[in-house]
Amino acid sequence: MPAKYTAGEIAQLARLELRSARRVVRAGSEHAGGNDNAQNRIHDRAQQRWQREAQIALGALADAENELARAEHTLRTARGSEKAAARRARNDAKSKVRRAESAARRYR
Prior knowledge:
mainly alpha
């Protein structure tokens, strides 16, 4: 899961680790930790965001593939002057599928 955490979340995690390290220096190793709930909340928030983004990207890919299938069918059935417009629509749909595949690749 590349880029799972935002820069702000990384800073929050680092701040929590630093706070924990200070606590160990001041009070000894028995006072280490205590940040589990905050760290879990940050991790859960990042996980939920990642899943939402994946769902959106994969939905966009499915929509683009459907549009490509419709455009290819239109191109097969087109006659005469409609053929050029259908070909352009198919090429646009192909490029849309390529962009959607590129965006969805990071979630697979």
